[in-house]
User: Fold this.
Amino acid sequence: MEWKIERIRDRCAACSRPFAHDQAVLSVVDPDAGERLARRDLCAECGRRHGERAVWWETRFQQQATRRRRVDFDRLLRIFEAWQKAPREESTERDALLYLITLLLVRKRYLRMVDLVSEGGREFLRLRKPGATGEWYLAPAPLLAAADLPPLRVRLEDLIDGSFEDEEMPATTDRESVAES
Assistant:
């Protein structure tokens, strides 16, 4: 007989209703379940009907905080560099995304902000890579309102999760591969 008892589930095993945070849950292990001991987590209503030979205990369901996303900054740098070599277009969403990516890369010291410059009536951040690489970049610095941020956040999360087309990105962040493509 196997004795591995699983962790609490997020819904009732009998009626399939999801548990609410801090809801009382009856956990039942039934020795008559065959070769293996099986844990069943039941809501208060379904828990009244468990077998007499079952071992049970009451617990509270705790909603797990969502795990923070791990950001691949090398990928963001490749996206940044791919958009730098692309022809400049009047795309407010792309400018805003590039600006947010730039801020993330500056914060994590993948890029250094040198100053703010105006070009053609628009403001740009002038940036360079740290070290002796000699690579300089201009990134748009649009004015963003609070209402602009929720859709931009969703799009940025899509980019971080990998929805950016791989054929649009250089394979590495070294100077030769960016220059070739």
Q: What stands out?
A: The chain has five helices and six strands. The CA atoms of residues 129 and 137 lie 8 Å apart.
